[in-house]
């Protein structure tokens, strides 16, 4: 049975419909963010980097990051988007940020060593944030859960 190693919930400022996660050691990322960024499908996977397209231009989303010892069950709930991918991370940490807002000051910690991770990304609140963000500043409406586990 999968065991939860860590869980962290952070706000992330989204702008221009996007957010990204990439290896904290960006020298290991051939195309560091925002190179090649384009709002498009829900998830675009690049070497050492994940680009996520949000449903609204500018708002603050809630990002919950879970690290597991093996593949967990999907998080409960009704999800508007779900994607499964992997990311190689040489630093064991991920930088997270919006398109022009830049990275959050603190990294997301996955492990104390390099590794390749499977990740399930789920999102809800997309339809609601798309409408609300047209009229007001919105916080915490669009919610993401990212579940990471080592690729075996």
Summarize the structure in words.
This protein has one domain: Competence, DNA-entry nuclease inhibitor, ComJ (Substrate Binding Domain Of DNAk, Chain A, domain 1), CATH 2.60.34.30. Helix content is 5%, strand content 51%. A hairpin with a 2-residue loop joins β3 and β4 (49-53). The two termini are 15 Å apart. The chain is mostly beta strands and 152 residues long.
Short structural summary:
5% of the residues lie in helices and 51% in strands.
For the biggest sheet, the summary is: 6 strands, antiparallel
Whole-Å distance between the termini?
15 Å
Q: Would you identify the CATH architecture?
A: Sandwich
Low-confidence runs: none
> Which CATH class is shown?
Mainly Beta
Number of strands: 11
- Tell me the CATH superfamily: Competence, DNA-entry nuclease inhibitor, ComJ
Counting DSSP H or I runs of 4 or more residues, the number of helices is 1
Overall average residue pLDDT = 95
Elements, N to C (H/E): EEEEEEEEEEHE
Reported by name, the CATH topology is Substrate Binding Domain Of DNAk, Chain A, domain 1
> How would you describe the shape?
globular
User: Whole-number radius of gyration?
Assistant: 15 Å
Structural class: mainly beta
Count of separate structural domains: 1
The fraction of residues in strands falls at over 45%
Helix content: under 10%
